[in-house]
Design brief:
16% of the residues lie in helices and 35% in strands. The protein is of the alpha+beta class. It has a single domain, classed as Jelly Rolls (Sandwich). The N terminus is likely disordered. The chain binds 2-acetamido-2-deoxy-beta-D-glucopyranose (NAG) (3 copies). The site of one 2-acetamido-2-deoxy-beta-D-glucopyranose has 10 residues, from loops. The site of one 2-acetamido-2-deoxy-beta-D-glucopyranose has 6 residues, from β14. GO terms for molecular function: hydrolase activity, hydrolyzing O-glycosyl compounds; xyloglucan:xyloglucosyl transferase activity.
C-alpha cells in the first residue's frame, strides 16, 4: 500500500516534471537578436547588457498557442534609472495591418533610496489593441539581489501574470461578450534590455546615468510548455479541449491564489487603466466592468 502510493506519487511528479521541462533551456530555445557581445546565452542562463553602445535582446524559437513561459530574472541592481528590461510574448507583427497579440511584463528601473522602487508594468494586446496597462510598485521584494520567477500563462479561459508563483493579474476570456481574447495567433517569448530615458523613469525626468554602465540583467531556467504552433492547423488542435490547459483546474484561480493576488494588488498596484477616468473620459473599455478572477 505504502509502496504503491509512493510509486504513484513518483509517477505523478515524473509526468509533471517532464511537462515542465519541455524545451527548458536558453541555449536550445532562445536566440540573441540584438546586441552582439551584450547578449550572452550560456546553457540555461543568459545575460543581457546595456551600455552606451547597445542594449540586447533574445527571442524564443518556439511558437505557442496557450501554455506557459517561465524564467528567473535578476534585474539590474543599483541605479537602474531609465533602464527598461522587458519580458513578453507576442505574435508576429504586421506593420500595415497591426492585429498582433502580446502579453507583457516590463521592468522600469529607478534611482536608489527614497522609495525609488522598480515599477512592474503589465499590458496585453489583442488584435493589435493594447491600452490595458497595470503597474505595480516592486517593493514586496528586491528584484535585484536574487533571481525571481516570472510566468506568463494563457489558456482559453484566461491570461495570468505571476511573480514567484503568486498571481498578480488576470485577464479573463469574455470573447462571447465581444471582448477580444488571444486564441488564434501563435506567440513567441522575447526579452530585452534598453535605454528608455525619454520616458521610463519618473516620466522622463531622470536620465540613464552612464557612469553606472554596464547595466546587466541575469537570467536562469527558461521553461516553455504549451501547444506548439506548426502551421495553421494548430489553431484548431490547440483549441481542442483534450489539451492539458483546458483542464478544469486551470479555469479559475483557487481561493488561496485569489487571496494572495488581492493582497499584492491592494498593497502594490499603483496604476490601473480601469480606474483612469481622465484617460478614458468615462468611457472605460468593456472588460473594466467584468470580473477578472
Ligand atoms: C521610481 O520612484 C518614484 C518615487 O520616488 C516613483 O514615483 C516612480 O514611479 C518609480 N518608478 C519609475 C519607473 O520611475
Ligand atoms: C521558480 O523556478 C524554479 C526553476 O525553474 C522552480 O524550480 C521553482 O519551483 C519556481 N518557483 C516558483 C515559486 O514558481
Ligand atoms: C551619476 O552617478 C555618479 C556616481 O554615483 C554620480 O556621482 C553622478 O552625480 C550621477 N549623475 C547624475 C546626473 O545624477
Amino acid at each position: 500500500m505504502a509502496t504503491a502510493k509512493v510509486l504513484f506519487l513518483a509517477l505523478i511528479s515524473l509526468v509533471a516534471l517532464q511537462q515542465a521541462l519541455v524545451n527548458a533551456s536558453f541555449a536550445s530555445d532562445m536566440k540573441c537578436t540584438w546586441g552582439k557581445d551584450n547578449c550572452q546565452i550560456n546553457g540555461d542562463s543568459a545575460k543581457l547588457i546595456l551600455n552606451q553602445w547597445s542594449g540586447a535582446a533574445i527571442k524564443g524559437t518556439d511558437q505557442l498557442i496557450y501554455g506557459y513561459i517561465d524564467m528567473r530574472i535578476k534585474l539590474v541592481p543599483g541605479n537602474s534609472a531609465a533602464v527598461v528590461t522587458t519580458y513578453y510574448t507576442t505574435s508576429e507583427m504586421n506593420k500595415e495591418n497591426d492585429n498582433h497579440d502580446e502579453i507583457d511584463f516590463e521592468f522600469l528601473g529607478n534611482l536608489t533610496g527614497n522609495g525609488n522602487y522598480y515599477t512592474l508594468h503589465t499590458n496585453i494586446f489583442v488584435n493589435g489593441v493594447g491600452n490595458k496597462e497595470e503597474q505595480f510598485r516592486m517593493s514586496w521584494y528586491d528584484p535585484t539581489t536574487d533571481y525571481h520567477n516570472y510566468t506568463i500563462f494563457w489558456n482559453p479561459y484566461m491570461v495570468v501574470w505571476s511573480v514567484d508563483g503568486n498571481v498578480i493579474r488576470v485577464f479573463r476570456n469574455y470573447e462571447d461578450q465581444g471582448i477580444p481574447f488571444p486564441k488564434y495567433r501563435p506567440q513567441r517569448v522575447y526579452s530585452s534590455i534598453w535605454n528608455a530615458d525619454d520616458w521610463a523613469c519618473q516620466g522622463g525626468r531622470v536620465k540613464t546615468n552612464w557612469t553606472q554602465q554596464p547595466f546587466v540583467a541575469n537570467y536562469l531556467n527558461f521553461v516553455d510548455n504549451g501547444c506548439q504552433y506548426t502551421g495553421t492547423n494548430s489553431i484548431l488542435t490547440c483549441n481542442d479541449p483534450s489539451n492539458w490547459f483546458f483542464n478544469s483546474q486551470y479555469k479559475q484561480l483557487t481561493q488561496p491564489q485569489l487571496n494572495t493576488m488581492n493582497s499584492i494588488r491592494n498593497q502594490y498596484l499603483v496604476y490601473n487603466y480601469c480606474t483612469d477616468t481622465k484617460r478614458f473620459n468615462g468611457n472605460f473599455p468593456p472588460e473594466c466592468f467584468k470580473s477578472q478572477y
